[in-house]
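Practice problem. Given the sequence and the SMILES for pyridoxal-5'-phosphate, write out the predicted structure.
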Amino acid sequence: MKNSELVSRSLQSVWHPCTQMKRHETIPLVPFSRGEGMWLYDFEGRRHLDAISSWWVNLFGHCNPVINSAITDQLEKLEHVILAGFTHEPVIELSERLARLSKLGHAFYASDGASAVEIALKMSFHYWKNMGRPEKRHFVSLENGYHGETLGALSVTDVAIFSDTYSPLISKGLRIDTPDWRHAERGESPCDFALRCAEKLENLLEIHHPGIAAVILEPLVQGAAGMGMHHPAYLAKARQLCDKYNVHFIADEIAVGFGRTGTFFACEQGNILPDFLCLSKGITGGYLPLSAVLSRQAIYEAFYDDSLSRAFLHSHSYTGNALACRAALAVLDIFESDGVIAKNREKANLMTEKAKVLAAHPKVEHFRNTGMIWAFDVVDPSPDFSRRFHLAALKKGLLLRPIGNTVYFMPPYVIEEEEMDFLVQGTLELL
Ligand SMILES: *Cc1c(COP(=O)(O)O)cnc(C)c1O
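Answer key:
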């Protein structure tokens, strides 16, 4: 099959996400035929290095043999079954293992990140209602935060291009300054800046806490904001404040969970336990749509009752899909058997060392790194920077998708030294 034929058929039949379709009159759509490890191949045999893990989902490369065989094995036994009133081994084992890892429990499943956020918001509000506090119904979120694009998730998302159009449909929550250290004063450390932002959170909670159900944030890295990074001291302080003012802490680890920030969960770096933990993206290694919300035992107990209306009646058709759960179990197996967290620490050091040439480039500002995420802002006044950079990168065999003027690397963890060199060298030439 020819690339060009596939492109025209796709444009005729598929409404692609996050895209002004008319732009494809001039920007080529890239069809892929297969993937292997770090690489994606088109139909003419050209390959591209997947430096953004296919929108932050892939952890162990494309067509990973361990995950492939776990899924095919499961496929022979049970592909899917209704989870209301029924259960199966993969969902039980996954829930047990996620509970052990997160120190939370009773995983509630959905199929994508935005749905996990909806679940956490609804559960938090419903918890307070069950506790006789129905007036606690507002949510606090961070400036530039991103939590998905359904209407509920947009109410706590602060990315104008995704939310402004729909603002009449959205009941917007309370916004608080981002601790992203790029906004620090000159000479102010990321930690001092984080603590100064936490004071603003305290001011807000002090006044509004009787009406607030929860604070929701992306721990350590605000992904869609352009990989804005903050000091873990913010997490510890926000946790303290949530306790003090009787407000839930929802950790949206949809992008940062599963080792992305250097620890299995980002919250570990602030030494905190959230009340709700939202997971998706890396959970199946980028194979199948799955998300989960884990919560504290006290939350679960507030729903446990003879009354149906006190129960959490939310559901999705594919909740707890057996194939997806099996893929997630294979991902956890790889973490254990390959010592991924420790290995990633070495890889991250090596990559950061290599990326020094980028950090030192005269057009580069705010070079930053957390775990297996690297980002920098490019000083370039043209409004079209991100599109031009993306297209030029494709020509060099690099799949990169800058956010505004921020170029970031979020590679699968299977990246090796040779591929790091290819990525850094290519990016340097692009600059
Ligand atoms: C991607 C993302 C979401 C939404 O997940 P979808 O699966 O795209 O709905 C929510 N929160 C964060 C932090 C994300 O990065």
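Check your answer against the key. The two ends are 34 Å apart (CA to CA).
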